[in-house]
Structure formats: C-alpha cells, structure tokens
Amino acid sequence: MKDTSSPQEKNFELDCSVAGYDYELPPELIAQNPAVPRDSSRLLVVDSPTTGIETAPLHHIFHDLPALLRSGDLLVMNNTRVIPARLYGHKSTGGKIQVLLLEERQYNCWLALVKPGKSFKQGAKIIFEAKGAGRVGGDEGVGGDEGVGGDEGAGGDEGAGGDEGAGGDEGAGGDEGAGRDSEVNSSSSSSSPSSSSSPSSSSSPSSPSSPHLLTAMVLETDAATGGRLLQFDVPEGKSLMQLLEVFGEVPLPPYITTSQAADEQYQTVYAKQPGAIAAPTAGLHFTPELLQKLRDRNINQAFITLHVGVGTFRPVEVEDVTTHQMHEEWIEVPAATVEQIRATKAAGGRIIAVGTTAVRALEGAAQSGNLQPFCQKTDLFIYPGYQWRVVDGLITNFHLPRSSLLMLVSALIGRQRLLNIYNEAIAFGYRFYSFGDAMLILPKAVGVGSGE
After folding, report:
1. What gap in Å lies between CA 376 and CA 374, rounded to an integer?
2. Do residues 413 and 46 make contact, with C-beta atoms less than 8 angstroms apart?
3. Is 251 exposed, middle or buried (0-12, 13-18, 19+ CB in 10 A)?
4. Are 304 and 358 in contact (CB under 8 A)?
5. What distances in angstroms separate CA 419 from CA 9, 13, 181, 415, one per listed residue?
6. Angle, to 10 degrees, between the axis of helix 415-427 and the axis of helix 7-15?
7. pTM of the entire structure?
8. Using one digit for the tens of pLDDT, what is the confidence trace for 390-411?
9. Which of 91, 116, 65 is nearest to 297 (CA)?
10. Of 130, 164, 178, 235, which is the most buried if we count CB atoms within 10 A?
C-alpha cells in the first residue's frame, strides 16, 4: 500500500521513535583525553533559525564564549562533584568483584551496581582493599572497558561516567556516565544522596584488625536498577564518603579506554557538592580565567546541583520514546539561583544552561508552572514537543546516538536539524562525548524545527 503520510507526519513519527535518533560516528572521533587548556576545545555555534537547515553552524574555540554571549546573560552551572565511586574487591570465597556506587540510601548504606552479580545474593560479603595495597581487581579486573552494569539491568553504551555514567552487566548504562536519563529511584528521602559527609583525602581507614580493608554486605536487590543495596562496615567516627578517597576511583565512561587524564580533569573547576558518579561535562571547558572574563563582561554565573547518576545515562530501550520512563535524579535549585534567574529575565537577559543536567534541574523545578526553589528528585523526560519554561539557550557536548540527552537537545532545536548539525561536526572532525568539544545553541536559534 502506498504511504500517503505527509513529510510533517513522517518527521513526527521519527521524533517519537528511538531509531530517529541514530547516527554514525567514526570511532576515532570519540575523545580519549580532554583539551589542554580546557577552553582550547572547539565550539560549534548554532546562532540562527536557519542553522542546520539552510546555513552551516559557525566554528569557534571555547575561549571565544564571552564574545558570543551578551552582557546581562546568566550562565547556570551544575556544581556537583564526582566521587571516587568505583571500588574493586572480592567475595569472601575469593571471586573478583567490581562495584559502582550510585547513591546513599541511608548512612553508609549504598545502592550500587555489582559485577558479576547474578549469583550475588542477600547476605553475601564483599571485601575491598585500599588503593596500592595489592588489592584484587584493578583496571583489568572484573568488567573491563564497560565498567559495571548489563545483563541484569538496563545496560548501556557509556558505563559508569559519561557525557555528563553506569553501564555493564547489571545496571543502567548511558550517555553521560552512569545510566542515561535520570537517577536511580531512591528512598523516600528528598535529601542529597551525599549529605552525610564530604570526601576527605586526609581520611584513612582505622580498623584495628585490617587498616587497609573495607567490607560490605548485600542487603537486597534493587528491582529498578538490577543493582544491590550494600551496607558498609565503616570504622566508628568515619563515613564511607570519607573512605572513598582511600578505596575508590573516579569512574570514567567505558568509551574512554586509553585516557591519561588526571582525576581533576574529570571535574569542573567549580565542582563543590560531592555526590555524582559522572561529570556534567559541558562544564569541563571552563577555566577560572574564562569565568572571570565572563564576569568582567557582566555575564554572571548561578549554580544548581544535580548529582549525575544512573538516570542521566540509562539507555532508551523502548521504540516509542514517549513511553520511556526516566529514573529519578536528585536536584537542588536554591532560592538564590531562582532570584538570579528572575532578575536576569526581568532585565531582559537570557538564561543559558551549561549542560543537559542544568536544563533538567531548571525545568524540573518549574513543572508547577513557575520556577521555584527545589530540593528533591525529578523524573522529567524532555523530548521534542516539550514546552520550555526557563531555559533560553544551551552549552552542551555531543551526545551518544539514541540517548535521552540527544532527545533533550532535539526538543530545543528539532531532531533532524540537530542531526544535520552533528553531521557537520563529524565532517569537520569535532571530538565527541565526555572529553570532546562543545556546542553553543543561542536563544535566537531555538524553536525552529523543534515542534513548538
């Protein structure tokens, strides 16, 4: 039978289909190391309603950003800090174990992805060894390039760590780090998963019997993620967050396989609130000097906190994207940031979100109709047709195919238009994903082709 669908109807069908968000990326364009200095990365600028339709995007360097924005604009940034969430250990019977911590449910009790975990039942014990203590496991231990997560959960392309990661055998993998679209469902508490204590590099285990060992017991399996709830046996007066500097490693996404990056290069220069298992990578391009140049031009900064978790990267596994269920992620939009945004808009300024996590936090805090201070979880899923409430423009990295992050950016400028721009970036050799280059979508370019 002849297809009588109009071009508009076909485009709408693709907007709702996960297959509509596919594209081919040469492997050599997956960035393995960050640009040095940070702001020497390239910046693809979408500055016109015709960009990606009739005209090509502009090519800049990230340090050109002050000249591309306007005095009075406000950059909203995610100040989360990546914790050393990857642990290596072994069962009491000797088998190697790799763990990716997702979130703290109760004091020293964490939801985690465990690999291998199919036979890891309630009551099982894991023994972890401090870094440099001849521990079992290591980078070439359990899991390999894909990190933790996979067969028993919603696996994904990115593993732990990501564009803004936890993939693998048991958990939810994704675009920017652990998972893809939001965070793992947590307990009823609306407080930050990392509220117990901040990491401290001066902390060290002080168990009288085994100063270099840490143990945990499996309490139960989490149906939503395929992960395990682990109760850690921590020396009195310590918290696991303190001990992670001794026992944990900062997780990188699995597509980063040959990186020489130091841990601090996978943190933004303004990272402050520990709790993420992947970096909000659009912010990795900023240096202190660039932030000062922006302030000197009256382009100010405000902060939100979204602890990037399994939700941001969990893959979209349904064909119809409108039926995709996002995992929740904890966010905080403080009153001071709300006031800065209101004052900026009242003065005619524009709100430029730095990264998809900042977008999700701001729009999640405005779901009542008006932006309000917000400190709880959100399962907001943004895809074409979304009605924007707060964000005017966006700075973002280049995201994985079929990811919720690609769908979010498509909601701003249109799916086919975005894919056209990605093809331009590929043709010009831009670097993709977590350590890759960036894209600036200016407010005057928003809306055309987005279905609004």
Report:
1. 6
2. yes
3. buried
4. yes
5. 18, 16, 19, 6
6. 80
7. 0.83
8. 999 999 999 999 999 999 999 9
9. 65
10. 178
